[in-house]
Design a protein that fits this description.
CATH architecture of the largest domain in chain A: 3-Layer(aba) Sandwich
Radius of gyration of chain B: 20 Å
Number of domains of chain B: 1
Shape of chain B: globular
Number of strands of chain B: 0
Largest sheet of chain B: none
Largest interface: A-B, 26 and 19 residues
Radius of gyration of chain A: 22 Å
Order of helices and strands of chain A: EEEHEEHEHHHEHEHEEHEEEHEH
Strand content of chain A: 25-35%
Number of strands of chain A: 14
Order of helices and strands of chain B: HHHHHHHHHHHH
Distance between the termini of chain A: 13 Å
Oligomer: heterodimer
Shape of chain A: globular
Helix content of chain B: over 70%
Number of domains of chain A: 2
Structural class of chain A: alpha/beta
Chain lengths: 305, 264
């Protein structure tokens, strides 16, 4: 076991009957990286995270965090980990200040100034009763409690759920600052663009199995977009099919739909020969990504390390 | 103690309500005592016509118009322990299972605190809140009783209240333990309440139902009141039985919670 790995799982398995859980999951998260855990809802992201925190116990396999065993040393691990659960549920009758004060006391005191800085960056009102806060404002409180004790490792389960785009950007800058400060970040998401923006590496999980781990750079290089172009008049399909990187061309009268991987240029040049009314591009769904990247037999893929 | 203090602070409004309710119950029953005493003969004659089990329910066949007999039947056989039991069972069930159902348990345990520490601190909170309302019961009787002509020894009264608190904490601990194993508040309440009802019935029916007699000692209610602490004061043995029940339940709570996967 290399010493610079912050999270190591070895053949981690959690069975809950037929469908849910995780299967033989082995991975490493290195010191100082932002590691994204990407997968659709129910893929096993939360199960993995809650196993690392010893809330649930693996059926087989083992895991360590910061070199400590998740079963034997969970209290030591918790001292160095900031955690935001997927469904952040604070004590609703408390104010933000009371809530953070309670957790600060359980951690033996924390830097008050950092709480103020975080609250300011996220525009969070800590004097309001939590019950009166919107979902997004509660989520901000969740982020503050995760970051406020300067943890060595941040484990964030779907951290930007319910945040508006501006706050998502603020969150991303928090994560990048954390990395700059030498903290390690493990975040789960089902949102590919978010993962692309903040992560160094991405583990892709599906149906409880880790099907690939790769650099965000190579993921982006293989990214596929769905394009829809409206023309003033009907266009021939063969003007587009056969272009490099262009697939699944469908033409219905004056509308052309296709998927594009890699360079956009050949398609744009080809479309420019006709008069374009509208052009829209969609991020593909995760399922589309899995199908494009790994084929339909992805679930039989090897767990990467 | 951080979790204990926080848990009690969360309950502070409810506890004020419990205190007022308990004091009101004491006021109601103590203020009725003068009229009861003036009809003593009639009432005692009526009492002796009741079935034995009913007499047991309202505090044995002793003289219910004496100070101790009256308090035993009107407060310590009914509303007193009932209120304390409801309070303790509710607090015990909420302690772990309530947090788990609300989804707040994950983050509490994400702090550097052991599971068993959380259970222990919640257990202290159950004891503290039940004792606090028990203290109100004691003070209310100690103050209001003499005002309405009830003649009683302070130590004997204290012994009875302590016994009632110990009874409630025992069942509160059962609720805590069931919550620790199952993670469901309703299950914890249902299980501990059923146990309380069953053992209560065992205690009051045992003297008059053939074959039940030897099992009466299994009922916590027997150890709570049958040695008549209002007259006889503290009983180390009977109190120890109640404390032992609470401790065994606590042990089971710690064991169950340590082993289990938590619901998210």
């Amino acid at each position: 076991m290399k010493t610079d790995a912050v999270v190591v799982t070895e053949h981690l398995t959690k069975s809950y009957g037929a469908t849910r859980g995780i299967v033989d999951l082995s991975m490493r998260i290195e010191t100082g990286e932002v590691f994204g855990f990407l997968g659709p809802n129910g893929a096993g992201k939360t199960t993995t995270i809650r196993t690392l925190l010893d809330f649930i116990r693996p059926t087989s396999g083992r895991a360590s965090v910061l070199g400590l065993d998740t079963r034997a040393d969970s209290v030591e691990i918790h001292r160095s980990v900031g955690y935001l659960p997927g469904e952040f549920a604070p004590y609703r009758h408390m104010t933000g200040h009371e809530y953070l004060g309670f957790f600060a006391a359980l951690r033996g005191g924390i830097d008050r100034e950092l709480v103020d800085v975080l609250a300011e960056r996220l525009e969070s009102d800590l004097s309001a009763k939590i019950a009166s806060l919107s979902h997004g404002n509660r989520q901000k409180l969740g982020l503050i409690q995760a970051f406020m004790h300067r943890p060595t490792l941040l484990i964030l389960d779907e951290p930007t759920q319910g945040l508006d785009p501006i706050m998502q950007q603020r969150f991303q800058s928090l994560v990048l600052d954390a990395r700059a400060a030498g903290q390690t970040v493990f975040l789960s998401s089902h949102d590919l663009p978010e993962v692309e923006r903040v992560c160094d590496r991405v583990g892709i999980i599906r149906e409880g199995r880790l099907i690939n781990v790769e650099d965000v750079g190579s993921l982006k290089a293989r990214a596929v977009r769905m394009l829809e172009i409206h023309f003033t008049s009907p266009v021939p399909a063969d003007a587009f099919s056969g272009l490099p990187g262009v697939r699944d061309v469908e033409v219905h009268g004056d509308v052309m739909r296709c998927t594009v991987g890699g360079a956009m240029d050949p398609l744009v040049k080809a479309a420019a020969r006709f008069e374009v009314v509208d052009l829209s591009s969609h991020e593909p769904s995760l399922e589309d990504i899995f199908l494009t990247f790994y084929g339909s037999d992805a679930e039989d893929g090897e767990g990467a390390t | 103690m951080i979790v204990t203090v926080k848990t009690l602070r969360d309950q502070r409004r409810a506890l004020i309500g419990w205190a007022i309710g308990m004091a009101a119950v004491v006021l109601l029953y103590t203020s009725l005592y003068p009229s009861i005493r003036s009809n003593a003969d009639t009432l005692n004659r009526y009492m002796r016509t009741l079935p034995e089990a009913v007499q047991n329910m309202i505090g044995g066949s002793g003289d219910i118009t004496s100070s101790t007999g009256y308090l035993r039947s009107e407060i310590f056989s009914t509303m007193g322990p009932l209120l304390l039991l409801i309070l303790a069972i509710g607090a015990g069930a909420r302690a772990i299972a309530g947090e788990e159902e609300h989804g707040t348990l994950d983050l509490l345990l994400a702090n550097p605190i052991r599971r068993r520490t959380v259970v222990l601190q919640k257990f202290w909170a159950v004891i503290a809140s039940t004792s606090g309302i028990g203290l109100v019961l004691f003070l209310a009787i100690a103050v209001l009783g003499p005002a309405f002509g009830l003649d009683l020894g302070v130590v004997d009264l204290a012994a009875t209240v302590v016994s009632a608190v110990a009874l409630a904490v025992a069942f509160g601990s059962v609720a805590l333990a069931v919550g620790c194993w199952r993670g469901r508040r309703a299950v914890a309440i249902a299980a501990s309440t059923s146990l309380a009802v069953a053992t209560y019935l065992l205690n009051v029916l045992a003297p008059s139902v053939e074959g039940l007699g030897p099992y009466r000692v299994l009922s916590p209610f027997y150890h709570y009141i049958e040695h008549d602490p209002l007259r006889n004061g503290f009983s180390v043995f009977h109190l120890s039985v109640l404390v032992a029940i609470a401790l065994v339940a606590l042990g089971l709570a710690l064991l169950g919670f340590e082993r289990r996967d938590l619901a998210s």
